[in-house]
Amino acid sequence: MRSQAKPQTQAVHDVSCGKALRERALGEAGSPEPVPQVLIAQIAAQIEDHCGHRRLKCRRLAVGWTVAQAVAAAHQFVEDENLAKVGLSERSWKDWEAGGLPSPDYQDLLCRLLATNPVELGFARDYSPAPAQDDSDPLWNGDGLDGTLLQGKTEGAGAGLRTFTEVGATKRRDAVKLAGLAMASPAAAAQILQQAAAEAMEFTRQAEATSLGSGTLDHLDLAVTEFNRAYSLKPPRAVFDAVMDYRRKVDALLKGRHTHRQERELLAFAGWLSELLAWLAHDLGEARTGLAFATDAFVHGQQAGHGQLCAWAMDASASINLYEQRPGKARDAALKGLIEAPATHPLTVRLHAQAARAAAADGDADGFTTAYRAAEDAYRLLPPRSPRRFGMDVLPLADYALTSYPATSYIWLGQAEEARQHAEQALATYEAAPAASRSPSREAIARIDMALAHALLGDPDDAVALGHQALDSGRVVDSVRHRAGDLTSYLTRRYPRQAAVEGLCERLAAADAAARPALPATTGA
Predict the structure, then answer these.
(1) Beta strands in 205-253 (DSSP E)
(2) Kind plus residue range of the DSSP H or E element containing 389
(3) What is the tens place of the pLDDT at every residue in 451-477?
(4) Distances from the Cα of 312 to the Cαs of 245, 251, 418, in angstroms?
(5) What's the rounded Cα separation, in Å, for the pair 51 and 229?
(6) What residue segments make up the domains of the chain, in order of their start?
(7) For residue 346, cis peptide bond before it (omega within 30 degrees of 0)
(8) Percentages helix, strand, coil for the chain, rounded to the nearest 5?
(9) Helical pair 307-323 and 260-283, crossing angle rounded to 10 deg
(10) 34 preceded by cis ω (within 30°)?
(11) pTM for the full model?
(12) pLDDT, tens digit (0-9, with 9 covering 90-100), for 413-452
């Protein structure tokens, strides 16, 4: 077995070279179908030695997949094996082949899919010495009882090495017992097999041991769904308190005893709750808290192997950074989310639009145009059936991003007429949405964008009227007050000492005063 990946010092060949090596090796082996895993491993080693690719790419080429086929095979494998859903994309796979390190859960998925181990995919190094050869012992000469290669190695010393030695010795004794079945009397053989059956039952019991109640995960799923529905309908301060309470409860559950499947689900629930807390903190004017929860959601999404959750977390991070006037960080968050987002998901449209909005905030008109066109292209590729998130259709989020985000962007780029047109489209889109998908705060921001466009076009009266309509919203959160502040600042500079403008400024000041302090304490158990 190869011990570690070679440094990337040789010239890297085109993929056609690896394909040719595979075809030659298969031909020499008589074109077996299916191709044995041992032959795939040999072909991967040849491609690595000859072509200079990293090991994950070598293994993929040895199997005969394109990147798209590999990603499709991974999603099919997850479905066939009833594993936790993942948001694996071609972009992520290419990033790993270029040297990026997948999360532990993704490493596990890739090893399962390609029937190998992390060392053979270049994710880890094997520092163990070669095992001593002993042709009389099938466990120590590299072959298992069924002729397979013994893969167990230790990577540590001290207690870890002692544990491995004890386990190895136990396996050695059990192997002797099983190997002696053919020579044992029927009664003795039956006793050995009965003992093995009892041990198998114990292994199963340990694997299923958990401190979670039978309905805990279903309850969490329902709670997260209800919290997301309440987000736009109830005051953010009250929702924050309730969601934070559940986030603490999930943290306590993660410290308890559960199966690996349950752990992945709990990690995902923790991430979804933190993603919602990021938005709520943003609504309450606490950017630092919002960014902390967005990061927490991303990390828990990684640990759960849930790429889509990671992408939603970065969507929140991008918005919060934009309102904090950090367009560079907002763009970085959007691009980080795009690595994890499924290519044909409305979230991809939204993240491209986030990147466009960040470019506009930075005064980069060309960057805005490029990213916005990417959002439009992604929108055209969306499937006929829209996905749902906690029971709600997410397609409107893509529609909003293609109308509201460019309206704001054109304001920042000083293109008033384009801003007015997109703001009108955004407002019409919001007002036409089903009641369950309506967002009062987004509607208010669309009105403020329209007001700014009117102000830029020399119409202060309509601008002030639209500003008052925005503040009439049933959900005047921090982002609404922030954008209203942009409007009043511009009106005050361009139309000083106008009574209507002063009245709007006074109303906004009262709304700001009523909103402070906003965020409840988050410390304590």
Answers:
(1) none
(2) strand 388-389
(3) 999 999 999 999 999 999 999 988 888
(4) 21, 20, 28
(5) 53
(6) 15-113, 324-431
(7) no
(8) 70, 0, 30
(9) 20
(10) yes
(11) 0.60
(12) 999 999 999 999 888 888 877 776 677 888 899 899 999 9
